[in-house]
């Protein structure tokens, strides 16, 4: 990991909040992710399971966390299991968490080696009635792979068929969607790194450059600032590539007169940032490009104002649709008849703006959050309207990450990232 140490108060509080929601006589188990092979003996870089990280700060494979607030043995109310480290492993694989270091990172006093898990776990299971399993209930999840968590659940159900089972997911969905101030600071750092990457690209882009060279500029700036890299596969889409919403090839030449849609964000300490900006390859927007750009910017700014406590995500999207419809009429992309005859299930504006406006963001780019519950202070959302016009050879999306405040407008974590056309042109031409 490249990030600076995180205040363990964050993880201590997160566990306290989770345990406050558990039933009497219950324990909860959280497994790390697997290390994935590429074939032969190579592996992909390890990525920690976000729930385990959220509750412990442990950023290492082969780690298990057990929370058991009513445990008769106070030493077993919070237990972290990590792989045994020794001098031999340290030489080959570098430093792993010692018991002392694991305590320092997580604030958990009881740390055991993973090889002792079965025995300790049996003892704890005999002392409780319910076990919380951490199933993946994210609204967009479509994972076919059997995770370490899935294997654990299967095995535990076989070994302990007489226990009651409960779900961690609803508790985590609620907790993780409301950010602690330490988390907001980490997310601000992620956004600041994204800002540095974007400013570097503004100075770099010109006709003839390849999209992957722009991607490389971001990555260079991210990693030199302690980021682990991109929070998600970046979209670096010049010209009509911007109209392929999930374009990630990033392998075309950037042409004079084209716009470039960039959707890229740094990850810092496992926290995501998610930015979209659209910039002219030659440093100057045409009048038409500027006209559409300013329409998207107005929708973004007005949509942001609606992100206040009490707003319902679904109703918010209906309102943003109305804002976008007005802009598309002004741009001559829709006419009144299109709107009058629209299908309420797929309104006319969707022809040019076919994706959602906002999603929760945090440890995951599309983070946890219960979409049918009203927004509340501490939620962090993206705001990302776009207008995509294949027939005119460009697509524009603008995306910021904002924190919902108790009162007043949300706080924009990307307030320092250039977005006005004048500022973008000025930096590109300076
Ligand atoms: N970059 C992914 C998204 O905007 O949702
Ligand atoms: Mn997004
Ligand atoms: Mn994005």
TrEMBL record:
Q: Which InterPro entries does the UniProt entry name for this protein?
A: Aminopep_P_N, Creatin/AminoP/Spt16_N, Creatinase/aminopeptidase-like, Pept_M24, X-Pro_dipept-like
| Annotated organism of origin | Nonlabens dokdonensis
Tell me, what is one Gene Ontology molecular-function annotation carried by this entry? metalloaminopeptidase activity
Taking every annotated instance into account, which residue ranges of this chain make up the domain Aminopeptidase P N-terminal? 6-142
Q: In which domain of life is the source organism classified?
A: Bacteria
Name the catalysed reactions: Release of any N-terminal amino acid, including proline, that is linked to proline, even from a dipeptide or tripeptide
Cofactor(s) for this UniProt protein: Mn(2+)
Q: Which family does it belong to?
A: Belongs to the peptidase M24B family.
- Keyword tags: Aminopeptidase, Hydrolase, Manganese, Metal-binding, Protease
Gene3D superfamilies, per database record: Creatinase/methionine aminopeptidase superfamily, Creatinase/prolidase N-terminal domain
Q: What class of enzyme is it?
A: hydrolase
Q: What is its EC number?
A: 3.4.11.9
Record GO biological process: proteolysis
Protein's UniProt name: Xaa-Pro aminopeptidase
